[in-house]
Design goal:
Elements lengths: L5 H16 L3 H4 L7 E10 L5 E10 L7 E8 L4 H17 L5 E8 L7 H15 L8 E5 L5 H15 L23 H16 L8 E5 L3 H12 L3 E6 L4 E3 L6 H10 L14 E3 L1 H5 L5 E4 L18 E3 L8 H9 L3 E3 L1 H4 L2 H15 L5 H26 L3 H20 L4
Parallel strand pairs: 3-4, 3-5, 6-7, 6-10, 10-11, 11-12
Antiparallel strand pairs: 1-2, 2-4, 7-8, 8-9
Helix pairs in contact: 1-3, 1-14, 3-14, 4-5, 6-7, 6-12, 6-13, 12-13, 13-14
Length: 419
């Protein structure tokens, strides 16, 4: 494990934004600390009869602007500092797009691909039971994240409901449609990335039809981002997943790649061949000559070691925290525009908010309505951030944090300090 601490990254970014706004430390100091951190250890009986103990986390960074909101990830490298950083990013993400939530995040330290489906269900349900005392539709609403999905949210919703004694669909978002999920939720993060990509290209007078794009990560967010941006006319010249990366100067056939990846669970790029496509390393993928680079994998992908070699004109952060503070400085010195994660990938939490609202009202919107409302929220947030960027001559990341911090500080001041 690296000594890199993503939570220190978050605190540095918050302080930078606060300095630009001329805030006193007492105005924003509360945002440097999570409100609540829960670490749990729980036994699960495996298929072979043995008992294995898993560790998990739920961190609530803020509830100043409403219930805490954030996903749950299952990953072998998940630890407390990662979950704390992700929870803080959620607070700022919700504030920048103007939805009435604070931030939270959860995780279990496990490689879910080593578990059977029955083991995965037992781990998910037991973790849900362990965090039940601090979650709920008025308190903290989990959602899918890395290596978790709608089916697992259904298990969490059922576990919570069984413990409460009645159905509580609003306890999680990203659920299957049949138990209260929202139409458009699965595509929401990738759709938000495509909307933000269009908006920044308009500002830079770069026609999307002439734009070359590289996408790192072919999970839900990366694959849907690539699909929608390709449909808008952009040429996808490079893609990568955990197994391999592909590059084709004239453009990859994305519909064929996505058809292959979705055909069977476990299909990866290492098993895929396309005429004229060249296999490259992840490092080569990130440093390709391209107009737009979309990191849609894990944190810390663009760092002090490789930032100087990045050739993209624009980076759209579809992943959470893919760029370190040191890399940000290098990219800024090269005039590379970075659209930050708290804006670029906020589509998922926006539609999660719509799902929660629908659950509270026992009402269901049509998919077109969901997509339309998402576009309005994303464009409004982008315009506010770009306006701050123009006014304060700050990077888009600092500008996004300034917008969010203004809203948080206003909430802190209005609510005051209890008791």
């Amino acid at each position: 494990m690296s000594t890199y601490n993503p939570y220190e990254n978050v605190k540095t970014t918050i302080r930078n934004a606060a300095g630009k706004l001329g805030l006193e430390e007492s105005d924003y100091i509360i945002s440097l600390y999570p409100e609540r951190e829960l670490k749990v250890s729980f036994p699960v009986r495996m298929d072979n009869g043995s008992v294995r103990v898993f560790e998990g986390y739920r961190v609530q960074h803020s509830s100043a602007r409403g219930p805490s909101k954030g996903g749950i990830r299952f990953h072998q490298d998940t630890d407390e500092n990662e979950v704390k950083a992700l929870a803080a990013w959620m607070t700022f993400k919700c504030a920048v797009v103007g939805i009435p939530y604070g931030g939270a995040k959860g995780g279990v330290t496990v490689d879910p691909f080593t578990l059977s489906r029955a083991e995965l269900e037992r781990v998910t349900r037991r973790f849900a039971a362990m965090i039940t005392p601090i979650i709920g539709p008025e308190r903290d609403i989990p959602a899918p994240d890395v290596n978790t999905n709608a089916e697992m949210m259904g298990w969490i919703m059922d576990t919570y409901s069984m413990l409460k004694g009645y159905a509580v669909p609003g306890v999680v978002t990203g659920k299957p449609i049949d138990i209260g999920g929202s139409l458009g939720r699965t595509e929401a993060t990738g759709r938000g990335v495509s909307i933000i990509t269009q908006e920044i290209l308009k500002k830079l007078n770069m026609p999307i039809e002439k734009t070359r794009v590289v996408v790192q990560g072919m999970g839900n967010v990366g694959s849907i981002s690539a699909k929608l941006i390709n449909e808008l006319g952009a040429t996808i010249i490079g893609v990568g997943d955990v197994s391999s990366c592909l590059y084709k100067e004239s453009g990859l056939d994305m519909s064929d790649i996505l058809r292959f990846l979705s055909a069977k669970k476990g299909n990866l790029l290492k098993d895929y061949e396309q005429n004229g496509a060249k296999r490259i390393t992840n490092e080569e993928l990130l440093t390709l000559e391209t107009d737009v680079l979309i990191p849609a994998a894990l944190e810390n992908q663009i760092n002090a070691e490789n930032a100087a070699n990045i050739k993209a004109k624009v980076i759209i952060e579809a992943a959470n925290g893919p760029t370190t503070v040191e890399a940000d400085t290098i990219l800024d010195s090269k005039n590379i525009i970075v659209v930050p994660d708290i804006l670029a990938n906020a589509g998922g939490v926006v539609v999660s908010y719509f799902e929660w609202v629908q659950n509270l009202q026992s009402f269901m919107w049509e998919e077109d309505e969901v997509n339309q409302k998402l576009a309005v929220k994303m464009c409004k947030a982008f315009d506010a951030v770009y306006g701050m960027h123009t006014e304060k001559k700050a990077t888009l990341r600092t500008s996004a944090y300034m917008i969010a911090l203004q809203k948080l500080v206003a909430a802190y001041k209005i609510r005051g300090i209890f008791p």
